[in-house]
Task: structure prediction
Amino acid sequence: MTTLLIHGGTVVNPTGPTRQDVLVEGETVAALLAPGSALATAVHSGAVRPDRVIDATGRYVIPGGVDVHTHMEMPFGGTRASDTFETGTRAAAWGGTTTIVDFAVQTRGQRVQDQLALWHAKAAGNCAVDYAFHQIIGDVNDESLKAMSELIDSGVTSFKLFMAYPGVFLSDDGQIVRAMRAAAGNGALIMMHAENGPVIDVLVRQALSEGRTGPYHHGTTRPWQTEQEATHRAIMLADLTGAPLYVVHVSARQALARVAEARDAGQNVFAETCPHYLYLSLEEQLGARSAQWGEFEGAKWVCSTPLRARSEGHQEALWRHLRTGDVTAVSTDHCPFCMTDQKELGRGDFSRIPNGIGGVEHRLDLMFQGVKEDRLSLGRWVEVCCAAPARMFGLYGRKGVIAPGADADIVVYDPDGHTSFGLGPGRSHHMNMDHSAWEGWEIDGHVDVVLSRGTVIKDESGYVGRPAHGRFVRRGLSQNLI
Result:
């Protein structure tokens, strides 16, 4: 069995930073070596000789990132997400994410088990990093409810419902209650896209009839009230049924306030947000213009829930709740589309723009800026990007932490390094897109080395992994529930 030593760095787990070396045997962490310990002395004296040594002096050694919200190859709006499992997980590796949890999709008339099998077929042999699945239930019926328990046995323990997209994914309140009752009985976690879809559809039709057709109006027709109302309704239905609830991609401060109230009352309610909601805005991005695209430039940032107005204070509120713990985890909702032939399907009708932003490569760097700007501690950075998502979705202990027995998913991160986002030479962009949502951003920090289960898949020379390295990970039930 090969051994590897990461020497001289500062290990950062959710509990904070500690000067330690990390000894890896095969695919797992064998030991954390405190300076001056007997094992550390044996290693450094040559009595124990690792097969490889990585010098991490002056750098942080953190668990591999766990991104629990990605959409590789997802069909949407007459097209599909532009990243395959191969290209998307390679980009994840570049950015220090070593585990993704993607969504298998069931819509009306489809059998849940068949759709999960389809997603397994897409991913198998094509992933650079480890992967797991959630299951979207777009057709709540007797058969799909029975399938939930079957999927739990196969390591798929979370199920996503939608309160938006009538005619495609929308579940009415009765269907939501049925699914939540099933989850309350079998231990599954209900994930919720919380927007009032029927109301949004009315606002969209009104805007289009009045000639408001540009990308900016994607945001104005999905106002914060539709997110707050749906979030509150989902929380009340979860309280009624006793089901745990995880609200995905929260963007409105009013919706997050409802989550905070439920958590203060002791309810099993959790929220995630995404870097684009922390940094970007309705005014600056959805309202952007360019020489190439004119007002359609804003289509690059069309996603749902939408980017919120900076003037309304959403971004600062999200940072505050992230720091205090009411936001449990940060994911990317990575759902990339190219402008050419994909986003431009919505020219003249914003409702036809495929919804999604690409970001699986940039999450660790963007959230490290929170550390640089004194918004987050080092431990909280690792918590929201690695440990908390792993714990939320039944992966912790194996993923999300550097500890003996854990998978050796490890990132050597240079806090004094620099990363330039965007397309072009010298910039970090490896997602299969013809644009970058983060074009021109300059980041203090750099992912230097990435290990997945003890294998170096990215080093200072670049990506050195392979598509078939990643394995499917069977998840347990959420480790956050009481």
